[in-house]
Design a protein that fits this description.
The chain has 220 residues and is of the alpha+beta class. It folds into two domains: 64 residues, no CATH class; 102 residues, PAS domain (Beta-Lactamase), CATH 3.30.450. The protein has six helices and seven strands. Strand 5 and strand 6 form a beta hairpin.
């Protein structure tokens, strides 16, 4: 006969246990011992720092490294070797390095840039991030930054963009009670040469619910 719901649940829990146990066992017996022997202290410190970009599923989250820093210990970013502030100049304006980051990270968008060589080059840090990322992905092949079940879709998009067949691809999904819009845009220079892909994710939950008009300020 057919299995009861409890029997199905028991099977699922058993399969889950052995998958997780097997992963932890491989880490304890193989990965960690090898890493201890081969990785320098700087790499361990960097992994520790970047691990706070993700949730801690099995332990209570430790104090982030930034909170351990003493006042004034943070490195200064956005300055050249001569001490002058870096500026971004274009025909539409001039921005400091700090202003560029403020603009990008204040936008309610989760942005990732992949160059023409399929390498991840940049991602933004919005207040609300929908997909976990850490600086470790910078320089990686984009194929190593997506789960296997969606990799073929990403590869198809990039190939179509590279050939000039398409310039945009849209997806949307429900994630943790939010309606997330995911858009891919082909980047091309003035000569039409393919220069990469821009992935933009946005929480469109409230946007979908808007009706009528609001032309006056209303903060209530």
């Amino acid at each position: 006969g057919q299995d009861t719901p409890w029997a199905e649940l028991n099977k699922a829990l058993g399969a889950y246990y052995f998958l997780v146990f097997g992963m932890i066992q491989k880490e304890d017996l193989v990965v960690y011992p090898m890493a201890t022997e081969t990785l320098p202290e700087e790499d361990w410190q960097e992994m520790h720092h970047q691990s706070f970009e993700y949730a801690f599923p099995f332990i209570e989250a430790p104090l982030p490294p930034r909170e351990r820093e003493t006042p004034g210990s943070s490195p200064v970013e956005g300055f050249g070797k001569d001490g002058e502030e870096l500026l971004f100049k274009s025909e539409t304006g001039v921005l400091s390095f700090e202003q560029v980051l403020l603009l990008i990270n204040t936008l309610p968008l989760d942005i990732t840039f992949v160059d023409e060589n399929d390498k991840v080059r940049f991602f933004s840090r919005p207040a609300d991030r929908y997909f976990a990322r850490s600086p470790a992905i910078i320089g990686r092949d984009v194929g190593n930054c997506h789960p296997p079940e969606s990799l073929h879709v990403v590869e198809r998009i990039i190939e179509a963009f590279r050939k000039g067949e398409k310039d945009q691809a849209d997806f949307w999904l429900n994630l943790k009670g939010k309606f997330i819009l995911i858009r891919y845009f082909a980047l091309r220079n003035a000569r039409g040469e393919y220069k990469g892909v821009l992935e933009v994710s946005q929480d469109a939950t409230r946007i979908r619910s808007l009706q009528g008009e609001q032309r006056l300020l209303n903060w209530d």
